[in-house]
Design brief:
Blueprint (H helix, E strand, L loop, with lengths): L2 H27 L10 H29 L4
Length: 72
């Protein structure tokens, strides 16, 4: 597989997976990112989605680096 395609796919899967995990955790603790207006619950929900996406991206890159044996 083309290395650039592999990099793009793993980054996308890691980011989306992490963002979904952050969304679901937010839903479990009562943070609704789709609430009307910007109240504290929606802001913290958005924050969890962003942090989850970033963490998923970093985990995907670490996995790819470990798999290929080289630095990004």
């Amino acid at each position: 597989m083309n290395p650039l395609l592999m990099e793009g796919l793993t980054d996308a899967i890691g980011f989306v997976g992490g963002a979904l995990l952050g969304f679901w955790i937010g839903q479990l603790v009562g943070f609704d990112i789709f609430a009307a207006g910007y109240n504290n619950n929606s802001i913290f929900g958005i924050l969890l989605v962003g942090l989850g996406g970033g963490a998923g991206l970093q985990l995907a890159r670490a996995w790819r680096r470990k798999r290929t044996g080289k630095k990004d």
